[in-house]
Amino acid sequence: MLINSAQSVVADALRGMAAAHPDLDVDVERRVVVRRDARDGGRVGVVSGGGSGHEPLHAGFVGYGMLSAACPGEVFTSPVPDQMVRAAGAVDAGQGVLFVVKNYTGDVLNFEMAAELAEEDGLRIECVLVDDDVAVTDSLYTAGRRGTGATLFVEKIAGAAAEEGAPLDRVASLARQVNESSRSFGVALSACTTPAKGSPTFDLPDGELELGIGIHGEPGRERRPMMSAREIAEVAVGAVLEELAQIGPADGPVLALVNGMGATPLLELYGFHAEVARILAERGVPVARTLVGNYVTSLDMAGCSVTLCRADEELLRLWDAPVQTAALRWGR
Amino acid sequence: MRDADFFRHWMAAVAASVEREADRLTELDSPIGDADHGSNLLRGFTAVVAALGAQPPTAAPGEVLQLAGRTLISTVGGASGPLYGTLLRRTGKALGESDEVSDAELRAALAAGVDAVAQLGGAAPGDKTMLDALEPGVAALGTSYRAARVAAENGALATVPMRARKGRASYLGERSIGHQDPGATSSALLLGALADVAEPEGAR
């Protein structure tokens, strides 16, 4: 691993972000990454956070038109409430703050505690839970669907609305609409290695893959012999479309995210996307915008995920709005 | 009666046993979690010992546990930070402000702490969580501290055949069966350390 020590990976990465991106205010000690001009213009703040290891999520999305601040936790461990309270205080311009929270027990508990504390400080806080992962089918007997690729859609669209000056309740309702309109499915070709453990988090032999994984190196729902990109795309897109159909009849195009888990080359990812695009065309699903790349990762895991979001004209307009962050930038 | 030093010793004993068992906790967390339970709790209880060392020595037992809980919430992260933090905060709150507490008061306070954990996490015994060690452990405090330790350890062992219904292990469904829950295991360490401090070897 390209590290100094397992204990310092998060702090070291934050020091690197600070050096690379002078428009970010990076507090390495307290682990808060804030857009320097977050308070200018009296906008709603959009704050997210989560365990480290999913880069560029979330700190890579801090900047114009997206997040006001991000709170990185330890690797695969949610941040602590102090971080979110500090971030909310740093970005609040009197218009309130939206917390974007991926649905994992730890993230939910820590963000809830932070929201309570920030509200005691007199801030207005709204929380939006992201839970798009269709691999978790048995929500009655689990912690509920996980938050994965749709987090990027939620953060981009909520951030664009906030940038335009939308009020807190509007930013929050758009974020919820994006989450409710999005579904994801992930596949691992290898496990990942956390710096603390130094060996793969689960045992996945060559020649096998894991279907329905999350983004924390946890095993998925089902293991199968290796499949081709074409076969994997059939399973992933099929699972996503099946769940999207349960929301209601299709009424427009989708945003598509074909996401790498960290160790899959873009060459393979684009080849995989060719299959995704073909299947969507065959099923009569128009794709309005596509993003292919490593955005919501799981350290050095090989594999991919597919996220589709049903987008109306307003969501498309906000998706197209200018953004300038470390990992996502266009239109400005 | 138990004074504030008793509770400081308890927290120090938890820190020592978490340090001793950190690798095992992380190992248990690998197949059904994300391989960090040991390192996260070690970071938290190391911070607890440091925070208690800086607390005025006049602090009451309840204040000791409340500071320990707040420190865990501020340093651990994940689900275990808020859950263990709430356990100790609520137990500390229930102890009130008196300088000494009886074993019966401690038992009642811990029961209140465990209830708060159940409420915060939305879990029940049998869900393969901390509660599977905490509930039987605290119930057995009525008999003795040693009985509480044994009950908590047995409770942790009993999570092996369970299917997880809460937390990250729940995503594995049937595949979570056959693994001991790391949170129940660390909960047994917490009550084991309490027994060590309350009834030291050879004292009875």
Automatic annotation (TrEMBL), chain A:
GO terms for molecular function: transferase activity. Keywords: Transferase. It comes from the Bacteria. Transmembrane segments: none annotated. The keyword Transmembrane does not apply. Its EC number is 2.7.1.-. It holds the Pfam family Dak1. It is an enzyme of class 2 (transferase). The keyword Transferase applies. Signal peptide: none annotated. InterPro entries: DhaK_1, DhaK_dom, Dihydroxyacetone_Kinase. Residues 5-330 form the DhaK domain. PANTHER family: TRIOKINASE/FMN CYCLASE, TRIOKINASE_FMN CYCLASE. This is Dihydroxyacetone kinase-like protein. It comes from Streptomyces avidinii.
From TrEMBL, chain B:
Keywords: Kinase, Transferase. Residues 5-196 form the DhaL domain. InterPro entries: DhaK_L_YcgS (IPR012737), DhaL_dom (IPR004007), DhaL_dom_sf (IPR036117), Dihydroxyacetone_Kinase (IPR050861). Pfam families: Dak2. Transmembrane segments: none annotated. Gene3D superfamilies: 1.25.40.340. The keyword Transferase applies. Its EC number is 2.7.1.-. GO terms for molecular function: transferase activity. NCBIfam families: dha_L_ycgS. This is Dihydroxyacetone kinase-like protein.
